[in-house]
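Consider the following assembly input.
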Amino acid sequence: MSRLLIENIIFAVKIVVIFGAVLTAVPFMVLLERVLIARIQQRVGPNRVGLDFIPGLGFLKGKFIIGGILQAFIDGAKLFLKEEVRVRAVDPVLWRIAPLITLVPAIMILAIVPFGPPIGLNIFGDWYKIPLAITDLEVGILFYLAVTGVAVYGIVLAGYSSNSKYSLIGGIRSSAQMISYEIALSLSLVGVLLIAGSFSLSRLIGIQSEGVWNWNIWKQPIGAALFLIAGFAESNRLPFDLPEGESELGAGFHTEYSSMKFAMFFMAEYMNMFSYSAILTTLFLGGFYGPIPLPASVYAMIDQPIFGIVSGVGSAVIGVFWFSVKVFLLVCLFVWIRGTLPRFRYDQLMDLGWKVMLPAALVNMVVTAAVIALVAKPISAAPTPDGPALTIALLVAGVVQVVAIDRILTARKRRILGHAH
Amino acid sequence: MFLKILYHLFVFLALFGSLMVVVSKKAIYSALFLILTMLTIASLFVLMNAQLAAALQVIVYAGAIMVLFLFVIMLLNLGKQAPLSRRSRPVRWLGLLFGVGIGAQIIAVIYSGFIPPAETTAAASVTIDHVARLILTDYLYPFEMISVLLLVAVIGAVVLARRHLVQGVETVTETAEKAGK
């Protein structure tokens, strides 16, 4: 077989494996959310649909987590079997494609996420280097921004095509929210891109290798915070879930959806949460690198070719492990915030996006560029971590900015409250 | 072979989409077909190895501008347009005349050799590095001028949108002054 054909087969296998793995993770994320929210609200949470039907595991009946581990699968099956209700007034074509448009971009982001370091594979005597990412685009981050930009159409169209006032208000809110936070989201990434000197995710990860002190979060504390907040808004999670707003809009844009079409929106939300956490991990939290690097001799030992077929398995396993841990913790953060914070009011949402986050992102961009110019960082050819000078300079600049933002916001709050009284 | 099939598919979709933008009776369908056209053109850019152009096409047009279009269409709740048969007869004939005229012009330009023939060899990919270098060295002045132009447009939009509000505030203060007197 020709080399090109084998490479294409590897490519296809990678797509199937990554897609399958993440799709399987979604039910567990739903379960995780339900269990954590239950803990936060001092409830028991799902504990009825577990593995206790298996002979010998009866003692698990009703036990926390294990007792409810199949809950999400059962919920999925339930949604699958439900009758699909279609109101006569909907626009049939748009109504049908809206859930698809929401789901597809959420999955597409996975195409650029690097899950681990490359492994070597020996096929018919030839060694192939396989990066554990579907592709490494030169415009990686721009691809991410483009895909999230298109994702809003699903929600907007769902709201419009349902032909109901609650859905329409949900859709309009969603598009306004997206436009407002997309700008802050994009600008919050400029600092990281300036440090890396590239849009490619492999390079963005490369500069964060060799230890926790090289992670971008130290160089870009403001950028990371803004990206985190804007990400919540982009994935429509509390406290930014105004497009759904069940207490005021029924269920917002998906009021008129049932059965599998509702399940698609549901799945898209969790896929978004996953891919967004993956991107945040990659950009700011060192991606698949662990907090403390192992000595090179250990890597040389665990990366020995096994049976002459695969090499680099050891570091790949460690990489995927750290990546999963970070994404898991971020997903927990999503759930934690959902369980703790109330929903924004619409004017507060717009206020935060345009008057706080956008100026902060702009200032951060200018300060980062200035610091990089002052430290006179050369853009290295190979993606390697920069010296401590840049990290310290940017960390100081970041802390100064945090203090300044805090002062300005406190003064602003006082002024607004003063006007009110 | 595979790329060729993709190319023809995207070309067909782009043409189909742009035709449907004009033909669709509902404003929202027109907007959606315009988005389809933008996305297929972005795909054509990718096939030409211009990833940056493709990404910017999607971010700026499909991601930002068209969301605004849809937002306005939804807010105004535009219904169906009046069917063509209700338009006046002379306008329809005039439209046909202009359509044929523009079509003939395009065909004439294509066959005049004004547009150089497409490169048959695969073009080297245009990286972000190249574009950035050109923008910030050779074309710095036009680039800055465009930024100023955009700033003017933004300020102009704010002034136009806020004019009534400012006048309204003035009249309120005026009435208050009058009441005070």
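The helical segments of chain B are 2-23, 27-47, 51-76, 89-111, 128-136, 140-180. Ask yourself how this observation constrains the way the partners meet.
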